[in-house]
Amino acid sequence: MAAFVPRGPRAPAGFTRQEHDVNGVRTVVHVGGKGRPLVYWHGGGSWHGFDFAAPWLEHFQVIAPSHPGWGASADAPPDMSSMSDYVLHYLDLFDRLGLGQIDIVGISMGGWMGAEFASAYPERIRRLVLVAPAGLADPAHPGPSGLASWSLDEMYSYLVEDMATLEPHLPKNADDAARHAAEVEREMQSAGRLFGAGGPFNPKLPRWLHRATMPALVVWSKADRLSPFERHEQWLKLLPNARLKLVERGGHLTLDESAEAREAIVRFLTD
Questions:
Q1: Are 160 and 152 in contact (CB under 8 A)?
Q2: C-beta of residue 52 within 8 angstroms of C-beta of residue 256
Q3: By CB neighbour count within 10 A (0-12 exposed, 13-18 middle, 19+ buried), where does 210 fall?
Q4: Vertex 107: Cα angle to 220 and 139 (nearest 5)
Q5: What residues does each domain of the chain span?
């Protein structure tokens, strides 16, 4: 039986696929558009793609990598096991791509990654957008428990309000279903290794967020059932130059479901 080879998300029209060897880790990057560079960092699941980013090509050069262990990128090596490892991985990738100062849009785990990068290398980021970011523990606003035991249908219900949002990315036959389940399982295992026993949080991050002095936009949906929107209060308190955009509808995949959120990000990055 052939070994499982992850396909990764389908890129929307206008993007081309690149592969880069970053310290021995094959990293797949989709790039499209022209203008100021905008890096999009996906969250703990990448299989649903980034179709929402197609209109951004009119304004920016959009750079959408798959993290090691996600999408079509290679698995992360055993010694690449912390968020700081991923930050350094991307620092090397950006140098390889010849990128100077960039804008970053990160969702969920990708938002945590963006916050860590912005705290460590603030001079490399012009503007920062965090969409329902992980990274800060908030015992007053816990999310749902038992993620590891959820069925795929349960997981979908926490990601979106309208299942039609995910329909283009869901399997259409038994072979696709098996591959989809394997891709989801691989990404969940990658996330588990990165999060560690403490979950998707860094208890040290509050100490260093004051270094992220660039203009920042925190985006959240009030209908997010996976990451309660009240968590935004901590981010606004700790980020020195942040503003907030709350939207009424859309699940955790706010960028996929909320045109209002997407348009607010474009305005923020272009004003």
A1: no
A2: yes
A3: exposed
A4: 60
A5: 15-270
Are 54 and 79 contacting, i.e. CB atoms less than 8 angstroms apart? no
The tokens 């029209």 sit on which residue?
Answer: 13
- In which residue are the tokens 């750079």 written? 63
Tell me the helix, strand and coil percentages in the chain, rounded to 5: 40, 20, 40
User: Which CATH number is associated with domain 15-270?
Assistant: 3.40.50.1820
Residue 124's contacts (CB-CB under 8 Å, 6 or more residues apart) are 91, 94, 100, 101, 102, 117
- Summarize pLDDT for 130-166 with one digit per residue, the tens: 999 999 999 999 999 888 889 999 999 999 999 999 9
Number of Cβ atoms within 10 Å of the Cβ of 156: 17
Write the single-letter amino acid at 38: L
Least confident of 14-23, 193-202, 232-241, 247-256: 193-202
31 DSSP β-pair partners? 16, 63
**Per-residue pLDDT tens digits for 25-44:** 999 999 999 999 999 999 99
Residue with tokens 């880790």: 25
